[in-house]
Amino acid sequence: MPRIPPELCTRCKGYRLLCGLPSCPILDRLRSQARSLERARWSREVQGSTPPSILVGERGYPGVRLYYMVPPGVAGPEAQRYEDPLGWRSSRTPLGSIVRLRSELVAGVLRADARRPHELLYQREIGPAALSERPVDSFLELARLPVPRVSFDGYTKPVGPTAPARRVEVEGNPRLEKPVERAIWEDEKAEVMAWELFNRGVNVYTIQRALSIGFLGRLRARRLVPTRWAITAVDEMLSRRLRRLLKTAPEIGGVEVYFSEYLHNRFLIILKPGPGWMEWIEIWHPHTVWTPGAGGPVASVVREDPLGRKNMEDGGFSAAKLPVLEHLYSRGRRADVIIVREVLPQYYAPVGNWHIRETVKHALAQKPLAKNPQPGELDALASKLIGEWGLAKRISQLMKPRKTLESYMD
């Protein structure tokens, strides 16, 4: 197999197959390592409560696979910890524990036509169960014993052992939040309904699932949306709305520096007066999940202007951008934003981009580490928190005021 440049891997994250190979060799290796999981305790009948946890695949679209996940023998509130990004972040659940929890979920796989979501989701109560605010008792009858492996992805949470489902029964009563229940029957564009739910306090993960399972949008045009697509789509839809609302807001009064770390990922966030430019700098150490053969750090940069136009698409940037704009909206202020993500070698398995969203949100919920630091102080702080990656020069450039049309007319 030809050597794949690590720069390509950090951009692809196993999803786009930019290397030209039919599957990602890094993810294939992780899956093979996970096959040592015990198989003896599994059977073709699975009883438990879905947390809820559901995933829509994309291969073969519009003919897609729908994964309905249940932890065998785990029922009631205890099942929630198997799909709980907010709880994982607040309790600082370690990477190994998250991988273990996800590996214990058994997924019954159903085939569905993305153009006709009602045939599967509405009639069997699978859709309401997927949006329930509490775990829902469920039963799976599988066509064969589950395949003993865990599937990893740079965008979604790991998926445990899978098998085709002969039967999926929702035995409990799903309980939906009132705004979600109303949204199901609204004949309105998905972006409008996503914002309405977000504005009413529904968490972004419920909105992602609602879009993915075809419960948002014009009634006659609803579709199943692959989970990977839905995650980024919701981040971008909400970010666009927040940008529009902030368009005429006053700028923040000075420079603010924030920091947080979780799952061996460090985030440095700098806010400074400006109309809303954003720069995402992602630095991967050698020997992380996407840089196993790199001889040095691998960096990538995404830039977005105040109108939301960017130089490249990146799901990690979309996940980080939303909590920043949410924070600025809560203050009624605009700002230019620099976000630096440093990925340490201990990040050995991808668990989705939820932790980016939650760690950036956690950083901005704290008091700033520094306010209006001098250039030398900012350089020293960045080097201390993120490491010596030659960031000082780039940050110094970004901290300079941007030239406006008016400045050329003076």
Could you tell me the CATH topology label of the largest domain: Ribosomal Protein S5, domain 2
**Quaternary structure of the protein:** single chain
Low-confidence stretches: 32-40, 405-410
Return the CATH architecture of the largest domain: 2-Layer Sandwich
What is the CATH class of the largest domain? Alpha Beta
How many angstroms separate the termini?
A: 59 Å
Radius of gyration: 22 Å
User: What's the tally of helices?
Assistant: 15
The biggest beta sheet reads: 6 strands, mixed
How many separate domains make up the residues?
3
Approximately how much beta-strand content do the residues carry? Answer: 15-25%
Q: Provide the succession of SSEs.
A: HHEEEHHEHHEEHHHHEEEEHEHEHHH
Report helical residue fraction.
25-40%
Gross morphology is globular
DSSP strand tally: 12
**Overall pLDDT confidence:** 86
Widest beta sheet: strand line-up: 1-5-6-4-3-2
By secondary-structure content and strand pairing, the structural class works out as: alpha+beta
Pfam families: Nre_C, Nre_N
Domain Archaeal Nre N-terminal: 18-291
Keywords: DNA damage, DNA repair
Function: Involved in DNA damage repair.
